[in-house]
């Protein structure tokens, strides 16, 4: 009996690592793609990830969202990434100039627009950007212009309308466009300037005005394979999916141009 118990214990000890190795081997062949993407792409890319992984069961996609300039800085400092999706051509151009992305892979895959939003609790909100000068309110929030593309576009709009200096003391800066949206949703600011896609996904704000495209730099979203990626081929395939009709349909579903 004692020998039987010893043999059973030995069998269990051998079986456990065998089972773990098998589980590890099942996932060993999967390619893990890391995508650093502008915060405004959060909802569209989250759905796209699910669709892509279903169609490509050998690929696992990890999403890292933030302001385009912050993500570019992270990649420049060695943060692992296979794909960079920016909300501005300016940040992609700087990445390309530094040799951090594969130039031939750069593709403009979508666009956006800038809108003025208000918290739904605001009584009689303004109905134009120009009215921000004449009607009373306490705070308006935008992305930090030096770090957030949406903030740069917002500043351009306000400067075009000669509102930047008059409103400067009322500005609340956000670290990315989603934080700007949150400020308005929570009532930390009565108004905010965001992408139309951000307003599209919120039921706590209302769009009161849309900026004319002539008031700011064209809003173009470029994507590229990161040069230090270990998965150039798979990264390129994801970019092709992003720019495909199926990818465009998902982006349009979330309000992208």
Automatic annotation (TrEMBL):
Family assignment from sequence similarity: Belongs to the bacterial solute-binding protein ModA family.
The protein here is known as: Molybdate ABC transporter substrate-binding protein
Which species?
Sporosarcina koreensis
Superkingdom of source: Bacteria
The organism's taxonomic lineage, starting at the top: Bacteria, Bacillati, Bacillota, Bacilli, Bacillales
Ranges annotated as spanning the membrane: none
**CDD domains in alphabetical order:** PBP2_YvgL_like
Q: Which SUPFAM superfamilies match?
A: Periplasmic binding protein-like II (SSF53850)
- Does this entry carry the keyword Metal-binding? yes
Give the keywords, sorted.
Answer: Metal-binding, Signal
InterPro entries in the record, alphabetically?
ModA (IPR005950), ModA/WtpA (IPR050682), YvgL-like_PBP2 (IPR041879)
Keyword Signal assigned to the entry: answer is: yes
